[in-house]
Amino acid sequence: MSVEYRFIQAVDTVTIRGNKLFGDAGSYGETTFPPRPSVLSGAFRSLLWANNGRDAQAIQQSDFRLTGLFPASQNETGVIEVFLPLPADVTVLEKDKSIQQLEPQVLNNTIQHSQMAQLPMMPILRQGRQSKAESGWLLNQSGISAYLQGQTLSSTHIHPQADLWISESRIGIGLNRRSRTVDEGKLFTVEHTALQQNENSGITAGLIVGVSGCDTLPESGFIRLGGDGRAARFSAVSAPVFSPANINGKFKLVLLTPGLFAQGWLPDGIQQEGDHYWLMLDGFKARLACASISRAEIISGWDLEQWQPKAAERVVPSGSVYWFDQVQDDTAALDKLATEGWWTDTLDNATQSRRAEGYNRVLLAAW
Question: Which residue in 294, 292, 317, 361 sits closest to 89, CA to CA?
């Protein structure tokens, strides 16, 4: 199934609100960026719905799938560079901006820890001197390729997040819906994301998304993005190119988008045999040796057709890393996992919808 890519550029600031309550006097609305894949999926499917005569059933029955989501920048000649928020096993140290990566290690049985006791290894950060981790960094395109190939990362592989987007707080005033006048006492603050545009270099920040199963997607146009339906323009671009991973008996799977798994932190297709967990896919088998996972997040959303909230569900955050070793049989099943997402073959309607929205997408990396 072919994949088309679109570069999205916000016309103004955007606010992508999460699942926290908002609406009371004094409320503070936080924004999330990059947005969940369902935000972009909903924006494009709404556009398709408007273009096809508002036939919702046709949209639901189509093979539309969002296949990937990256922060990106475009220069004045149209060249795109994609970025990736740091995976859970990559750390930028505050002191010297050096990059350290977690290494799976077998711990002595006498060491007490809270890591998943079922796994044989634990991700360890080796440091000569203690230093705090610094946030606000992204892997650039060469850094993504180096990471996927298992190469050592350096300062040339990272890029400041603030060069692409920053957050701004804006004050709003509540309005009376009937009179359309000010509703006294209802001041609120909303966080907005401002995507950077460098007039000197001609570089514009945005997002790049991949879409498959849709032959009616316009090559360019506008979508409504985030809170208040603010405008964003999109245009067709070439697929981003990364150097492929070389699998030699072991590998990593990195969540590109949040993972919605029936077993919580444990992805679909993994079964327990004896004292170990094994990934089993179409004859392929590999042992789950280690995992680096951040705290679970909550996703929800709004069902426009039913006009009600979607069920709140826990997801494994994007950037989470799973290490596998003891690879058995053909690794072709991994290519299918990387192109179609980390899903089982039998899905109910609700899960099929989440699949179309772009959840459970992974990157295959060397270990």
Answer: 292
